[in-house]
Amino acid sequence: MPEPILNDISHRRYNPLRGSWILVSPHRTKRPWQGQEEAAAATTLPVHDPSCYLCPGNKRAAGNVNPQYENTLVFVNDYSAVKEVQTDYKAPDRDGSLSSLFLQAEPVTGKCYVVTFAPSHNLTLADLAPSKIVLVIETWTNLYTAHLSPSSPLVKTVAPTTLPPSNSHDNHVHPNAQYRYMQIFENKGAAMGCSNPHPHGQIWTTSSLPEEPAIELEQFKRYHREQGGCHMLEDYAKLEVDEEERIVYANAAFVAICPWWATWPFEILIIARRHRRALTDLSLEEKEQLAGIIAEVTRRYDNLFETQFPYSMGLHQAPLEGSDVEIECSYFHIHFYPPLLRSATVRKFLVGYEMMAEPQRDITPEQAAERLRGCGGVLYRKKLQEQEEQ
Questions:
Q1: Which band of pLDDT confidence, cut at 50, 70 and 90, is reported for residue 167?
Q2: Which residues are catalytic?
Q3: How far apart are CA 53 and CA 367, in angstroms?
């Protein structure tokens, strides 16, 4: 529990996941707010949009027609950020030259997917029952499993229920090469650059290990080595459960926390209570628990400002291919990075000092967690709908 004085003075907090610091200025929250206050936003989207390239039966940009799917749909992104096949590139031999120091490049190949969460155009994860979110988690797990290296220690623990999918919608997912990492993520809302409101996420597999998970993995390995084989996030989850102050919601398998070092005002970190390296380590019961906590987090987000709360959400887990030490030290967790600060339209921007020096926040994680804990219950949109029907 933070010392009371930290609620009134500017201070820095350490982020062990990145080995970095963030400036916290809690006294700034006492500034009077004279900005706009918005009324609750009702959903106005149709169940099916004929112009949406993610709705069942519609044509996509590349000309393919979506099947009449009932739960999730997986397809290769028509506008992939990386390609499976491209012209070979080898860096020129410039040893000793300035260009060899400053003008470095390396090729990256991979495969990108789109995963719809539901056939209905007007739903989000906050609207879905946990039983429906479990199907999304199973789809993530199937795709992750299909791309695992045969030499990965994780292959030995894969249950038959998580083998690569064989239905007609998903049987094209087998890669033509072994990739290093799979990033599963969702951008929700136009504020986060999402171009289509249909509930969906993306999956990018790449031949390289991206910077953010690479930084975390190095921190996990160091902690594991220096703390006698303990896992950083397992220890951190125990600490937060004991202190309770930053917990938004918890169940038997996972905790949702506004972390001590959070950068975004209502940032949440979902952590497995016990060491789980990847989705493939989760039992069916744990997947149900994960679905439940995702439903709780997203519903509380929407209820906070009674709006479709924007965020970027991403899963971090073991690389598809890596050393035994890398796989063992990996720890499954989910980041939620939402930009909203005071209302449905007032956002936090990482600008000025935060771009030039280090991240900064006003509202403390403890204050954010308290507010989100109070936003449980029925989704506000359902209440509005019930009032309209009366």
A1: very low
A2: 200
A3: 40
